[in-house]
Specification:
398 residues; alpha/beta; GH; Beta-glucosidase 18-like; Glyco_hydro_1
């Protein structure tokens, strides 16, 4: 429930946005660069809560806002395709500033939607609300203190940028140190709204990258700019990949990264409940897509790493494969396949891959890793009296 100082504000706001329609959100209002979109998002969220809240008990307000800020406003690869050199060649945009503004408005919109839910819907629906970040893990490129410090900055810019405000009410100190006055500031009321505005943390984790410091070392491609945290990332050290390459350039098979990123989140956020909301891979070659043993090995190794994190006390409540079936993968369209089920693009027929059968057996506790050690998360969590693999029948993203 909201505090007395916020209830009037929330009541007035909810009544005003509930009467609105949907304008041209990008061209007229400026999309996430405008505070107006916060109100439109709350209107949208309220409709979702009212329409589906009797069935949906776990909500994700925004999936990967850090990726929206990065790809839509820094690199200009996603709509509305805004950027500036050296990060991209868009017709308009400012890559040094606009990602910060877009993220700022997304975070406040999230907090306002959560307060609406807790005030008007939770008393009857008793649900839970979280937010999800795309979370690479990072390792120092060189065995040097400056690269180890750069790893801390990379985690702050990639992960804590999303979670620090919704847990603690403000941006990471690492970002404030790099950006100074350019980093937007939350008002006292906004900080109050943001602080504690999640019931769980969602982690989308696929891979690990090396990090090189750009404060004391020359770096190309904008790594020497505040918006990048004065660092560069790469998947290679002396020409050797950090892990087995996959079908995407920046995604490598680095199972240890799963345990490390979960431990990072556990330590930084006092072991809040977590879900691994995405984990999977697309294969380097699709010639044997139905006989996808490499995908099975990927999930086995990452689940074993996740199980180690759980045994060490991480409060992980669920794990979701990305994805059940081949789907539309952003700029890669239908050319990259992450699914456990193969989709024929001509007929839309769905065929289970080898990984689908393996995962079904895994969920029944019938699978083991190469060392014959049980890695089933269901069995791991059963020993801790938790339910992990399917906590609720429905989890919704808005």
């Amino acid at each position: 429930m909201c505090s007395d100082s916020l209830c009037g504000f929330i009541q007035e706001h909810y009544q005003s946005v509930s009467k609105k329609g949907y304008p041209d959100l990008e061209q007229r209002d400026g999309g996430w660069l405008s505070p107006l979109l916060r109100e439109e998002f709350v209107h949208f969220a309220s409709i979702c809560f009212e329409s589906f809240g009797d069935r949906v008990k776990h909500w994700v307000t925004i999936n990967e806002p850090n990726m929206v800020a990065d790809f839509a406003y820094l690199r200009g690869l996603y709509p509305p395709a805004r950027c500036s050199p050296p990060f991209g060649n868009c017709s308009t945009g400012n890559s040094d500033i606009e990602p910060l503004i877009g993220m700022h408005n997304m975070l406040i919109a999230h907090a306002m939607a959560v307060e609406i839910y807790r005030t008007f819907f939770w008393p009857k629906q008793n649900g839970f609300v979280g937010i999800v970040a795309h979370a690479f893990m990072y390792e120092p490129l060189r065995d040097e203190e400056r690269d180890r410090d750069a790893v801390d900055r990379a985690l702050a810019f990639n992960v804590a940028w999303t979670f620090d405000p919704v847990v603690y009410g403000d941006y990471p100190a690492e970002m404030r140190h790099c950006h100074g006055l350019e980093l937007p500031r939350f008002s006292a009321k906004e900080k109050q709204l943001l602080r504690g505005s999640i019931d769980f943390i969602g982690v989308n984790h696929y891979s690990t990258l090396y990090v090189k410091d750009c404060i004391h070392s020359p770096c190309p491609s904008g790594g020497d700019r505040p918006i990048m945290g004065f660092l560069n990332t790469t998947g290679y050290r002396d020409g050797v990949p950090i892990g087995e390459p996959t079908g995407l350039d920046d995604f490598f098979v680095v199972p240890r990264g799963m345990e490390k990123i979960i431990d990072y989140v556990k330590q930084r956020y006092n072991n809040m409940p977590m879900f691994v909301t995405e984990n999977g891979c697309t294969l380097q070659t699709q010639e044997n897509e139905l006989e996808d043993r490499d995908r099975i090995n990927f999930h086995k190794s990452y689940l074993a790493s996740l199980a180690r994190a759980i045994r060490s006390g991480a409060d992980v409540r669920g794990y979701f494969v990305w994805s059940v079936m081949d789907n539309f993968e952003w700029l890669n369209g239908y050319t990259k396949r992450f699914g456990l089920y193969y989709v024929d693009r001509e007929t839309l027929e769905r065929t289970p891959k080898l990984s689908a059968g393996w995962f079904a057996s895994f969920l029944r506790n019938h699978t083991h890793n190469n060392d014959n050690e049980e890695i089933s998360l269901a069995s791991v969590v059963h020993n801790q009296n938790k339910v992990i693999s399917q906590m609720e029948p429905e989890v919704a993203e808005m």
